[in-house]
């Protein structure tokens, strides 16, 4: 059965049923997979799967899951997907799915997955599955080619090139019988011929494979095989032309092995110089394969990298590659000589390291620290020797661990620190470095398990270090716990400035201002020249309302205040204050700056946003913007065109809480509007006109017009205003005031939200009519 | 047999049909081609005549007579040139002049431009006076292009005047509104003013922002927005990004569209100009595929048009430009994040979902936006840093729509669950986890369960007692401590065991072929558990604590009541917090009963 014919029909049916998105994903998932755009494919998959399940489309589910596996397993070599592959096999062999043509492909996914875990070790099983599957179908199935490729790949994995070639010929003949092309099988043919040393024929095979229609993944695979063929033919210009770039190879792990193999063979031919840059790229690939559980491929790639690294003197990379090989050994299904290979490489590495230059025997530790190194390898080698010479120097341990981490050997760093912790139980530096690294690598759970907070009985410097690590852990999300750690820490080292500073910050976070002030004060006394600390004290004092202290700090910083005016009631110009809600959405409002760190909102906020008018607050006096630009008239502004500094709100001290209602209708004239404003002000209501002269109302003929003879649409100036009503105001009184005013005008006004708040449905309806008549 | 050289016969009718229907996507392109010729004639004058002149192109429309006139005050043509260049298809003087002077400013390429006149006009008249022979004016006349005549005409000033007597099907080219709109589209960046019907104001008085000089950054921003609006019929621009200086001779402007984008929707809007002449708006791929909400105007003399001059050749230069634009866009977005938070906020409101998918496929974009993109959760949208804070250092990803026990436990702790079943979200979280080292908890996996529920060991007595109460033929008992402690038990499916049982069943052998099944069983044989459900008994729960200390047959009844209540609560569709409240009430009642 032709899977693509079914796909086409299914997509059309889905479109017709209004399930366009699912139909789109059915097309896009295979497309992006074949194009080596696996992240794109991954972005679609869960959404597609959810939709297929929602609409109970079992065949579509099998289809999507198969293509997900094509991307994840075949492209990205993710052997950890084996359980999912088995689930797919099970799903695709149920009564309702067994006729789905993609069922065969699920079997292929399974064989692929074992091939990626350890291809040579599962050779027999892979061949058996392929043969069994091929017996179920014939060459008219599109799957015939894919299953044949998988079988030939198994033979290539065990280097049985002759049988591989036989299978190529067999499949090619079968396909020819149904007038089909061998397609991707030609790539397998080229590999088999290459293995048999028949490079010219391999080239011929590849030249007859156009690759058209298979997508970029197959194109890149073919390009790398072609490159290997050119290497075998020593056709160096062609090799140069067919090299796949690192970026292209990184699109899918399926390209890694050949990418490294090509450089390895070129190096052997004396045509490739191993550089640090190349090894970094190779290690990136190796790491991906390790993470994906592609044990055999990781082993092979690591082996080539180790040899290349050693050949150019990069012993650190060689050691990392060998460590990777060691880690793969237990993951292999069969050893097949892997242990011997690792042992041999290890011997070579030991010999290489023994030949490296040694530190001078007369070198002092101080002189060692003053040395400069030309490369990471050199520095690491020197540090390791120094560590061997002075193993009890904790600073050296920390430096060596940092260097390990720097070269990508984080696990070595952690192991060194863990071992040193036991050996140097009084070292705070080692404890601090270990905790930081562990927190980074294992998160909260790993850290708390290895470094319990119960520090009683530990040497003082270790207690301090561990408590610092806990402060780092807690200070963002659990300030109370951070404070407890800081208190404990300060009990050991009462004058530690960094701890006092952190305590001030955390206490302020906990709104324990008086205690925070005491901490700031200690710091200001100790470092009187540091204005940053004075600002810290000033802000906390402002939050606490300790105005004398605010004045004292502000005057030292350089502020001058009018006498007789409260410190938070000065006119220090207009600023903008930014409020951030729990979703991170920002609201910015104009405010009157009333003190060094205080302001009152003067902005009437739009409907639909929190009404902050009249709020008094404390802000962080470090501005969020710079007025580094100038506008057309030379006025300073920021890049967004703000003319005022923007500050972050720290705390709202007083929130009068206004409700916002609208007032709409024909403008009563400036004088009358002013009268209305005064009447409302008596009720503590703020009237704010929001419309300008461009707001013009279109009055339909005869609507609301005493002059019934008018036959034309009349244009009248409009008024749209906000009424800011205090939360505890008497809404009835406000309504009466508006009613009295409106009734005395030639054209009525409307205030529907206020009537809604009063629950006055009849008048609300009348105002709706007015709104209609005046096109409000 | 001797060979003979013969001329290929050209069927001009057929050729014009091909041009009209195939080479040029719309016959209106003829207008562009003729204006372009006029422009090149002006440049030729400048290059060859050697003295300055205020150039102008004037258009006249006469809808009553179906006439369009294109007039320029450029170089004009001599008698011989009329024969060489107007009467010979594919022979353009522009190409010769470009080669001779190495100028980049001339637009014409293939010498086919004039031919387009025949696509739209029955009769073409060209009155031309060359600057080389200003005293002689020539009239070239042709109907349909097959035959032509050249005669001397009444003297007129230097330049050319082309009169198109339009075919019936192209009469819209005699409408001044239509012509003005076309000129605005094709010629908006041409430096030579183009007027219509003697109106004083040129139709093409647009200065591109990259040509602006001596303006403040703020003025430039405003002009960029106004410029982008000219090219963005559907969506007003939200913010603009200039193309930085480059060695590609490339100028341009990017902008972010205002219309909301849906997942991978594609509204890329690209206008390409070559030497200031509009060529195409069909080169969306100059923008990255993920940039479905971005507009671009780009101008370069180095783009190579195809023969129709309505698309570009995808050569090495094209690819370099594409990469450069991608980088400029990502850097520009990054700058918006850092320097224009309000504009970025507006962009996020419109395009957050598309940006999630885009960041998945573009590492640089991911880097630029990772702190501000918001992910959808069951309690609203949050940035990853906010989620990490709310979720105590981890991201909880829910890959399926269906509710699970984990949802309930996490929701009760106020931890947002990220909707991993929406476009790009799951892939984005995985990427974030890999690149930033944030822990990702995939709900619905055994690993996720173990991370959520802290397994504890209990005394042998308690283990025996509670196991006896809660163990069932298909339920494995595990002991744990988890929040909220109102929940006494929680049941999960054991996917490994289910997989094992399905694959190792005799029934599987009847469905799945033997070699494949054997291969699958290689894996399932390594799975030890075979019970398909797991119950985690919460040792923090007061009822469980009480049960662990009770003896007697009634204890089993109490345990059954607990199981029934939990099962019913887990199956319910009520909100998670109300379920916890119910379980809390239930627990209190149970304790009272047990005390009695």
What would you report as the Rg of chain B, rounded to the nearest angstrom?
A: 38 Å
* Topology, number of strands of chain A: 12
What does the main sheet of chain A amount to?
5 strands, mixed, barrel
Instruction: Report helical residue fraction of chain A.
Output: 55-70%
- Largest beta sheet of chain A: what is the strand line-up? 1-2-3-4-7
How many domains make up the coordinates of chain B?
4
Silhouette of chain A: flat
Oligomer classification: heterodimer
Distance between the termini of chain B: 123 Å
Gross morphology of chain B is elongated
- Assign the CATH superfamily of the largest domain in chain B: Histidine kinase-like ATPase, C-terminal domain
| Uncertain stretches of chain A | none
Please name the fourth-level CATH homologous superfamily of the domain at 364-494 in chain A. Answer: Tetratricopeptide repeat domain
Structural class of chain A: alpha+beta
Mean pLDDT of chain A: 91
Total beta strands of chain B: 21
The Rg value of chain A, from CA coordinates, equals 38 Å
Which pair of protein chains has the largest interface, and what are the residue counts?
A: A-B, 56 and 62 residues
What is the CATH topology descriptor of the largest domain in chain B?
Heat Shock Protein 90
User: How much helicity do the residues of chain B have?
Assistant: 40-55%
**CATH level-two architecture of the largest domain in chain B:** 2-Layer Sandwich
């Amino acid at each position: 059965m032709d899977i693509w014919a079914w796909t086409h029909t299914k997509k059309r049916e889905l479109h017709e049923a209004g399930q366009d998105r699912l139909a789109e994903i059915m097309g896009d998932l295979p497309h992006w997979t074949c194009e080596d755009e696996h992240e794109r494919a991954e972005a679609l998959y869960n959404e597609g799967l959810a939709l297929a399940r929602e609409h109970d489309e079992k065949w579509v589910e099998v289809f999507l899951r198969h293509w997900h596996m094509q991307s994840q397993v075949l492209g990205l070599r993710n052997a950890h997907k084996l359980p999912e592959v088995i689930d797919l096999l099970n799903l695709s062999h149920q009564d309702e799915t067994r006729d789905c043509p993609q069922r065969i492909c699920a079997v292929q996914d399974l064989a692929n997955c074992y091939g990626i875990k350890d291809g040579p070790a599962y050779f027999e099983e892979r061949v058996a599955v392929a043969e069994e599957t091929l017996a179920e179908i014939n060459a008219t199935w599109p799957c015939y080619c894919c299953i044949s490729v998988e079988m030939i790949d198994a033979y290539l994995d065990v280097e049985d090139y002759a049988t591989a070639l036989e299978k190529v010929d067999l499949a090619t003949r079968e396909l020819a019988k149904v007038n089909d092309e061998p397609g991707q099988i030609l790539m397998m043919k080229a590999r088999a011929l290459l293995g048999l040393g028949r490079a010219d024929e391999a080239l011929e095979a590849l030249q007859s494979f156009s690759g058209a229609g298979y997508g970029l993944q197959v194109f890149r695979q073919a390009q790398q095989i072609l490159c290997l063929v050119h290497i075998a033919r020593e056709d160096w210009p062609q090799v140069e032309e067919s090299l796949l770039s690192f970026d292209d190879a990184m699109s899918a792990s399926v390209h890694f092995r050949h990418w490294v193999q090509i450089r390895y063979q070129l190096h052997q031919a004396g045509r490739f110089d191993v550089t640090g840059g190349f090894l970094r790229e190779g290690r990136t690939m190796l790491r991906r394969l390790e993470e994906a559980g592609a044990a055999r491929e990781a082993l092979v790639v690591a082996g080539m990298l180790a040899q290349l690294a050693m050949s150019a003197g990069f012993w650190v990379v060689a050691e990392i590659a060998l460590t990777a090989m060691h880690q793969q050994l237990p993951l292999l299904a069969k050893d097949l000589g892997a242990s011997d290979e690792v042992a041999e490489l290890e011997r070579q590495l030991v010999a290489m390291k023994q030949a490296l230059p040694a530190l001078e025997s007369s070198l002092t530790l101080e002189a060692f620290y003053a040395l400069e190194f030309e490369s990471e390898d050199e520095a690491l080698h020197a540090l390791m020797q120094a560590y061997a010479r002075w193993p009890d120097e904790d600073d050296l341990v920390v430096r060596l661990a940092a260097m390990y981490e720097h070269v990508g050997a984080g696990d070595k760093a952690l192991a060194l620190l863990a071992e040193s912790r036991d050996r140097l139980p009084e070292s705070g530096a080692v404890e601090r470095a270990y905790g930081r690294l562990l927190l980074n690598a294992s998160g909260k759970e790993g850290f708390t398990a290895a470094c319990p907070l119960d520090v009683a009985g530990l040497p003082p410097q270790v207690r301090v270090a561990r408590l610092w690590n806990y402060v780092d852990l807690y200070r963002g999300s659990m300030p109370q716990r951070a404070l407890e750690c800081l208190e404990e820490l300060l009990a050991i080292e009462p004058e530690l400035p960094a701890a006092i500073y952190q305590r001030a910050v955390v206490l302020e976070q906990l709104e324990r201002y008086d205690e925070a002030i005491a901490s700031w004060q200690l710091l200001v006394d100790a470092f009187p020249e540091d204005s940053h600390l004075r600002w810290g004290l000033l802000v906390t004092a402002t939050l606490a309302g300790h105005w004398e202290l605010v004045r004292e700090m502000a005057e030292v910083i350089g502020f001058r205040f009018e006498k007789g005016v409260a410190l938070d009631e000065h006119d220090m110009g207009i600023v903008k204050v930014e409020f951030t809600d729990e979703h991170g959405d920002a609201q910015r409002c104009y405010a009157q700056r009333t003190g060094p760190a205080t302001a009152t909102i003067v902005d009437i906020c739009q409907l639909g946003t929190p009404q902050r008018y009249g709020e008094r607050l404390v802000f962080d006096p470090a501005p969020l913007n710079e007025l580094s630009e100038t506008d057309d008239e030379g006025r300073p502004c920021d890049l967004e065109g703000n003319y005022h500094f923007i500050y972050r709100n720290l705390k709202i001290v007083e929130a009068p809480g206004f409700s916002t209602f609208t007032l709409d209708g024909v403008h009563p004239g400036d004088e009358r509007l002013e009268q209305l404003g005064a009447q409302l002000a008596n009720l503590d209501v703020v009237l704010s006109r929001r419309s300008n002269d461009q707001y013009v109302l279109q009055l339909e003929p005869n609507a609301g017009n005493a002059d019934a003879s008018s036959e034309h649409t009349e244009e009248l100036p409009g008024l749209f205003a906000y009424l800011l009503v205090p939360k505890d105001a008497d809404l009835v009184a406000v309504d009466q005031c508006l009613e009295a005013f409106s009734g005395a005008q030639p054209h009525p006004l409307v205030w529907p939200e206020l009537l809604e708040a009063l629950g006055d449905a009849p008048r609300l309806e009348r105002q709706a009519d007015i709104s209609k008549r005046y096109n409000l | 047999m001797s060979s003979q050289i013969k001329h290929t016969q050209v069927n001009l009718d057929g050729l014009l049909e091909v041009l009209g229907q195939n080479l040029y996507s719309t016959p209106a392109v003829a207008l562009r081609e003729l204006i372009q010729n006029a422009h090149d004639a002006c440049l030729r004058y400048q290059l060859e005549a050697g003295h300055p002149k205020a150039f102008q192109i004037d258009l006249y429309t006469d809808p009553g007579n179906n006439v369009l006139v294109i007039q320029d005050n450029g170089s004009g043509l001599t008698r011989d040139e009329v024969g060489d260049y107007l009467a010979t298809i594919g022979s353009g003087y522009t190409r010769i002049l470009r080669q001779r002077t190495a100028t980049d400013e001339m637009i014409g390429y293939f010498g086919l431009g004039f031919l387009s006149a025949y696509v739209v006009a029955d009769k073409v008249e060209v009155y031309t006076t060359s600057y080389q022979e200003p005293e002689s004016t020539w009239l070239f006349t042709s109907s349909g292009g097959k035959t032509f005549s050249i005669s001397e005409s009444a003297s007129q000033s230097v330049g050319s005047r082309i009169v198109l007597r339009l075919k019936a099907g192209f009469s819209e080219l005699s409408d001044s509104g239509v012509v003005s709109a076309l000129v605005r589209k094709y010629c908006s960046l041409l430096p030579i003013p183009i007027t219509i019907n003697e109106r004083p104001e040129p139709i093409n008085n647009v200065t591109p922002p990259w040509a602006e000089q001596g303006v403040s950054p703020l003025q430039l921003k405003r002009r960029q927005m106004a410029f982008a609006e000219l090219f963005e019929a559907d969506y007003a621009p939200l913010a603009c990004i200039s193309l930085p200086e480059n060695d590609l001779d490339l100028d341009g402007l990017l902008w972010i569209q205002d219309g909301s984008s849906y997942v991978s929707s594609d509204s890329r809007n690209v206008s390409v100009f070559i030497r200031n002449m509009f060529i195409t708006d069909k080169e969306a791929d100059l923008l990255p595929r993920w940039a479905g909400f971005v507009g671009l105007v780009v101008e370069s003399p180095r783009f190579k048009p195809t023969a129709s001059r309505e698309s570009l050749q995808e050569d090495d230069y094209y690819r370099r430009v594409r990469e450069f634009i991608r980088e400029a866009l990502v850097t520009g977005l990054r700058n918006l994040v850092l320097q224009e938070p309000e504009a970025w906020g507006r962009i996020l409101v419109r395009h957050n979902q598309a940006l999630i998918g885009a960041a998945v496929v573009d590492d640089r974009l991911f880097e630029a936006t990772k702190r501000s993109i918001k992910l959808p959760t069951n309690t609203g949208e949050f940035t990853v840093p906010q989620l990490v804070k709310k979720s105590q250092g981890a991201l909880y990803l829910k890959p399926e729509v269906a509710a699970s026990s984990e949802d309930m436990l996490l929701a009760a702790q106020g931890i947002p669950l990220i909707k991993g079943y929406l476009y790009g979200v799951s892939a984005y979280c995985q990427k974030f986890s890999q690149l930033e080292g944030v822990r990702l908890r995939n709900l619905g996996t055994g690993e996720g369960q173990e991370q959520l529920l802290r397994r504890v060991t209990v005394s042998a007595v308690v283990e025996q007692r509670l196991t006896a109460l809660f163990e069932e033929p298909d339920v494995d008992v595990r002991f744990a401590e988890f929040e909220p402690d109102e929940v006494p038990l929680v049941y999960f499916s054991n996917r490994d065991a289910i997989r094992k049982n399905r694959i190792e069943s005799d029934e599987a052998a009847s469905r799945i072929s033997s070699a494949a099944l054997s291969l699958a069983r290689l894996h399932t044989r390594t799975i030890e558990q075979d019970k398909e459900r797991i119950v985690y008994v919460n040792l923090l729960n007061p009822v469980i604590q009480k049960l662990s200390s009770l003896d007697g047959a009634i204890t089993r009844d109490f345990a059954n009541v607990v199981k029934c209540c939990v099962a019913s609560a887990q199956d319910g569709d009520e909100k998670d917090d109300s379920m916890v409240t119910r379980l809390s009430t239930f627990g209190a009642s149970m304790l009272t009963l047990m005390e009695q």
